């Protein structure tokens, strides 16, 4: 028995399950915003005299079980007026509360959502919550409010820079992030190659980013979980809000289907078709759009149903010779059911798909690829006592991968139609999580996730001698593709390969005093899907591939400890964490691997490993005229692929090398200052060690051209990245609470016009024949103005 | 396709590129073997040359020749063709070479007391049947597009290496091609040049090459194309030549034998 299993057993044995000395009753209900009837996530329900309490879940539900008695109850949620009342708990009680927004009674009303405040008691660590209002304050390029850009300001989160898709958490790659929108998996979070993210900020209620100590209810990716919840829509009255910006315009409407019972929300966002293009005298089109939908209906006190959808596309076309379309589609049906006042359940049926299409008329072909899945989730939250909360459930995902299909696009094309072989898999999981208050000071959360992955039969699968799809050429010291010795054919019901993994999760918090605590966590996670990408940051055309005979699942172990402290009555908070993690079976590619339209990807991949460690510091001011945070991360992220035998060189001679997302120092500051009711100013400052890159240490001539010869992988770095952005928000009529209200946002991105290198490439100038180092910088100083409204 | 994305990225953003000064490390010089035996269709192919040079610091204008080497090629009948250096140019010549389609040849180089060898097969190539031009092509609609058509044999896997040498003072454009998606069809080599106008010409050379050379050149060209955020990890590309004396001091370059078809096209 491992140490961890022992700890879990210990916790079980000593838990007060079944110890019932006194009659206990349950108080439960839903907490919502009185004006919109929108449920609120993370509202505190506190019993100050008993030093206990709970918070509302993702659906606004709470439940707490206490001995019979009279209690003083405080419901608090920042930005809303507190409710204080005394309740007589003599039987099970259902109480729904509606909170009233704290109106601008005083000058210093600056609202940050309570969800962002540090809860030192909860064992959950390494998690950052952001509300939609915070995200909207952060200055951004071209005035486009952006969820992903906002989270990259948090400690432990970076991006490869402008024009790079996705984000990296604690030295992990972008495909290791589980991105959930209303519980549905989003495969590509970027519009326009990462300049903008796919989430419409108006439709978002709140989000949480888990970087470590990840609860057992999440699985399937190893680095992080970004859990985003969309608003349900106002079930009291019709409202609209929107914005007009340089890049895009958006409009969101919401209102009741049936007052207090049902609501709808429709949000749309579209960029202008000829984005950036007046500069070029060419016939080009580039735009993106997305649509968010949500319908909510309360059947009765115990049953709620939700239907939500997302559809987004990016479209590019260049002079009729090239056309590119890609995006995500998500459809999600959920049913919340209360079995009892202690047992909350949610069933989700989710369809999600990512499509990538390309038409290249120059060469004469059409290309389509994508991934789609059907996802069934059943999650239960069991509020056993005021000390123990259980969460358990199951999850089953059916994946279908279309790695690509190529067709001639016109009659003169020399292309033969070809279909790369579709792949299929079934991913299952069972989990339980216990949140357990062991003593006044010590709280633990512990759980297990059992995951199972079945790679299902596909039409054809290559067979190799000794199952080696990559061979090492001893003489030339290079890796080469092995020739298949045969082909196996399968039925769809066959299981080609199955994997089972047990993923323990553990987090503990020890409260030092009422201001500070220390926390520790461990989690193991498994990732069965791999994004095939050998570039510094993912591209939209990268394809996902399932684990199987040749690609093993990635397995992560992460340890973290931290110190957490609130100051001055929660006005300031400090979080200090250190983490260490290892990932087994991180895919690496043989030199020059061509991943595009490759039907035998196993011939170019090797299984390596990765590790990362670091320190994170987050100092936050939560209240007052000035709010914001300063984050610092010191970290290291490396990867290693050794030879499989002593003769083989491995990648980079089998030595550890920096991953492209290794940023030694990462400082980010973001702040917002309310000058007066009409004006507020915001600023960001970022400072990051340059991205690791490989530089040439020489050149040679071959076949009339000059070729750079390179050092070991990622030994050098791009110049340091830093940037300052500022913005000002102007609200002409701040006291207006009804009717049409508008707000102007003026911004300057990269104020001092730093030419940050997105990359440096080494090539021979075609005209002068001289070798050059060419820096690509994406954004210089970019001013912007946008107008937001609501009514 | 990654290059395409990169082009889009440049077109669709405010981004800009500039040449910067950078201090780069310098490695010990290595031997570079540029041994390309080319048998132009319609010739006897007896005159051949092999170029030996050394690596140089990245920003240097010249690369130094590798002088005083012993260079020979042996065919499968054990006939030895000696290649003799032309002065101190690092270019080694032979004028009695006998090329044979699918013949296997071995290159031996003795340089600085170390022996380098490589083995390769001479590959055939199909004839370029016709050339089409489009003066309003490319992504901007203002570039000159050239398509050089040829018929791919359907009964085998073929790999091609194209050279496009325009009558302009620019470095030639090189490209590789495989028949995976076009096997047995009439297919084309594709070339885009911005400043190619009426009366100017382009020399198109198509070479038959082995799969290994195709892989080698494919990676090599990836490393010389502009990088950008979608650049694949650069690495030192190893060819088919090995150092028998000291394997760690491996040479760069390649020993290739190709049948070549040439088409000189004048823009109309």
Can you give keywords for this protein?
heterodimer, A: mainly beta, 22-stranded antiparallel β-barrel, 53 strands, 3% helix, B: 268 residues, mainly beta, 2 domains
Q: Your description of this structure?
A:
The complex is a heterodimer of chains A (791) and B (268). With 791 residues, chain A is mainly β. Chain A has three helices and 53 strands. Chain A is globular and about 85 Å long. Chain A has a 22-stranded antiparallel barrel. Chain A has a five-stranded mixed sheet with strand order 9-16-17-12-13. The model of chain A is unreliable at 8-20 and 104-115 (pLDDT under 50). With 268 residues, chain B is mainly beta. Chain B folds into two domains: 31-124 and 237-260, Immunoglobulin-like (Sandwich), CATH 2.60.40; 128-204. In chain B, 9% of the residues lie in helices and 46% in strands. Chain B has an eight-stranded mixed beta barrel. In chain B, strands 9-10-13 form a three-stranded antiparallel sheet, with no helix packed on it. In chain B, strand 2 and strand 3 form a beta hairpin. The model of chain B has no long low-confidence stretch (mean pLDDT 87). The chains are: A mainly beta (791), B mainly beta (268). At the A-B interface, strand 46, strand 47, strand 51 and strand 52 of A face helix 1, strand 1, strand 2, strand 3 and strand 13 of B.
Provide mean pLDDT of chain B, rounded.
87
| Class of secondary structure makeup of chain B | mainly beta
Number of helices of chain B: 2
Q: Total domains of chain B, how many?
A: 2
Distance N terminus to C terminus of chain A? 61 Å
Question: What is the strand tally of chain A?
Answer: 53
In whole angstroms, the N-to-C terminal distance of chain B is 30 Å
């Amino acid at each position: 028995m491992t140490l961890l299993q022992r700890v879990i057993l210990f916790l079980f044995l000593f838990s007060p399950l079944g110890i019932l000395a006194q009659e206990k009753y349950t108080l439960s209900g839903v907490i919502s915003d009185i004006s919109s009837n929108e449920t609120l996530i993370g509202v505190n329900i506190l019993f100050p005299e008993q030093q206990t309490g709970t918070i509302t879940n993702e659906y606004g539900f709470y439940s707490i079980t206490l001995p019979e008695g009279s209690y003083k109850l405080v419901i608090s949620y920042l930005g809303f007026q507190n409710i204080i009342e005394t309740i007589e708990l003599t039987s099970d009680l259902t109480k729904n509360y509606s909170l009233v927004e704290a109106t601008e009674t005083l000058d210093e009303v600056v609202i940050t959502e309570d969800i962002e405040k540090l809860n030192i008691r909860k064992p959950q660590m390494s998690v950052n919550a952001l509300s939609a209002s915070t995200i909207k304050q952060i200055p951004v390029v071209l005035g486009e409010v952006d969820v992903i850009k906002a989270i990259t300001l948090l400690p432990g989160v970076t991006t490869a820079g402008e024009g790079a898709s996705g984000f990296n958490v604690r030295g992990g790659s972008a495909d290791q992030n589980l991105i959930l929108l209303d519980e549905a998996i989003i495969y590509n979070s970027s519009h326009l190659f990462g300049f903008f993210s796919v989430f419409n900020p108006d439709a978002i209620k709140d989000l949480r980013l888990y970087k470590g100590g990840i609860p057992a209810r999440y699985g399937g990716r190893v680095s992080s979980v970004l859990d985003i919840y969309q608003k349900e829509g106002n079930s009291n009255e019709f409202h609209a809000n929107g914005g007009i910006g340089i890049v895009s315009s958006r409009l969101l409407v919401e209102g009741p289907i049936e007052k207090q019972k049902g609501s709808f929300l429709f949000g749309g966002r579209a960029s202008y078709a000829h984005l950036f293009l007046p500069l070029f005298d060419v016939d080009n089109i580039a735009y993106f759009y997305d649509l968010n939908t949500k319908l909510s209906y309360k059947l009765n006190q115990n049953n709620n149903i939700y239907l939500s959808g997302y559809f987004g596309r990016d479209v590019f076309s260049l002079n009729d010779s090239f056309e590119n379309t890609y995006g995500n589609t998500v459809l999600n049906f959920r049913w919340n059911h209360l079995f009892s006042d202690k047992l909350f359940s949610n069933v989700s049926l989710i369809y999600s798909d990512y499509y990538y299409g390309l038409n290249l008329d120059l060469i004469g072909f059409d290309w389509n690829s994508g991934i789609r899945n059907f996802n069934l989730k059943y999650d239960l939250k069991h509020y056993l006592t005021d000390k123990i909360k259980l969460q358990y459930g199951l999850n089953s995902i059916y994946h279908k991968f279309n790695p690509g299909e190529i067709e001639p696009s016109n009659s003169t094309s020399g292309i033969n139609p070809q279909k790369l072989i579709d792949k299929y898999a079934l991913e299952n999981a069972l989990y339980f999580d216990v949140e357990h208050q062991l003593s006044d000071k010590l709280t633990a959360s512990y759980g297990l996730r059992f995951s199972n992955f079945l790679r299902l039969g596909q039409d054809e699968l290559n067979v190799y001698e000794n199952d080696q799809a990559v061979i090492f050429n001893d003489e030339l010291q290079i890796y080469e593709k092995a020739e298949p010795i045969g082909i196996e054919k399968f039925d769809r019901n066959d299981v080609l390969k199955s994997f089972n993994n047990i993923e323990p999760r553990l987090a503990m918090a020890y409260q030092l005093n009422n201001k500070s605590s220390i926390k520790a966590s461990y989690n193991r996670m498994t990732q069965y899907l791999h994004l095939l990408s050998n570039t510094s940051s993912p591209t939209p055309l990268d394809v996902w591939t399932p684990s199987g005979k040749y690609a093993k699942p990635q397995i992560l172990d992460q340890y973290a400890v931290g110190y957490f402290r609130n100051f001055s009555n929660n006005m300031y908070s400090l979080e200090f964490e250190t983490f260490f993690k290892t990932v087994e079976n991180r895919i690496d590619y043989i030199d020059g691997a061509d991943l595009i339209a490759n039907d035998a990807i196993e011939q170019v991949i090797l299984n390596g490993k990765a590790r990362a460690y670091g320190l994170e510091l987050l100092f936050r001011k939560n209240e007052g005229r000035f709010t914001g945070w300063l984050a610092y991360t010191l970290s290291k992220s490396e990867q290693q692929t050794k030879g499989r035998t002593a003769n083989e060189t491995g990648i980079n001679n089998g030595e550890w090398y920096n991953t492209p997302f290794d940023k030694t120092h990462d400082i980010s500051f973001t702040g917002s200052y309310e000058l007066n009711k009409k004006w507020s100013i915001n600023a960001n400052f970022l400072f990051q060690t340059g991205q690791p890159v490989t530089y040439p240490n020489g050149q040679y001539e071959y076949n009339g051209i000059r070729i750079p010869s390179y050092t070991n992988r990622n030994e050098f770095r791009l110049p340091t990245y830093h940037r300052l952005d500022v913005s000002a928000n102007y609200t002409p009529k701040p006291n207006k609470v009804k009717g049409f209200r508008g707000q102007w946002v003026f911004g300057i991105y990269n104020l001092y016009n730093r030419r940050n290198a997105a990359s440096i490439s080494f090539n021979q100038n075609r005209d002068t024949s001289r070798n050059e180092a060419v820096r690509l910088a994406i954004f210089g100083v970019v001013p912007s103005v946008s107008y937001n409204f609501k009514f | 396709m990654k290059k395409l994305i990169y082009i889009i990225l440049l077109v669709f953003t405010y981004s800009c590129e500039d040449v910067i000064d950078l201090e780069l490390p310098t490695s010990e010089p290595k031997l570079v073997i540029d041994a390309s035996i080319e048998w132009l269709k319609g010739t006897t192919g007896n005159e051949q040359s092999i170029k030996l040079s050394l690596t140089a610091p990245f920003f240097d204008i010249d690369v130094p020749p590798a002088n005083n080497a012993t260079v020979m090629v042996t065919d499968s009948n054990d006939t030895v063709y000696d290649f003799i250096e032309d002065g101190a140019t690092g270019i080694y010549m032979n004028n009695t070479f006998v090329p044979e389609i699918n013949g296997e040849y071995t290159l031996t180089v003795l340089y600085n007391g170390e022996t380098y060898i490589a083995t390769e097969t001479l590959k055939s190539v199909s004839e370029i049947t016709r050339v089409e031009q489009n003066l309003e092509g490319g992504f901007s609609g203002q570039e000159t597009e050239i398509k050089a058509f040829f018929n791919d044999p359907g009964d085998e896997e073929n790999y091609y290496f194209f050279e496009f040498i325009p009558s302009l003072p620019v470095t030639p454009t090189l490209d590789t091609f495989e028949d995976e998606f076009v096997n047995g069809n009439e297919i084309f080599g594709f070339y885009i040049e911005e400043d190619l106008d009426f009366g100017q010409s382009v020399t198109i050379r198509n070479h038959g090459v082995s799969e290994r050379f195709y892989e080698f050149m494919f990676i090599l060209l990836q490393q010389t194309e502009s990088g950008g955020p979608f650049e694949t990890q650069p690495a030192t590309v190893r060819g088919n030549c090995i150092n028998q004396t000291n394997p760690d001091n491996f040479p760069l370059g390649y020993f290739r034998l190709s049948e070549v078809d040439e088409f000189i096209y004048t823009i109309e």
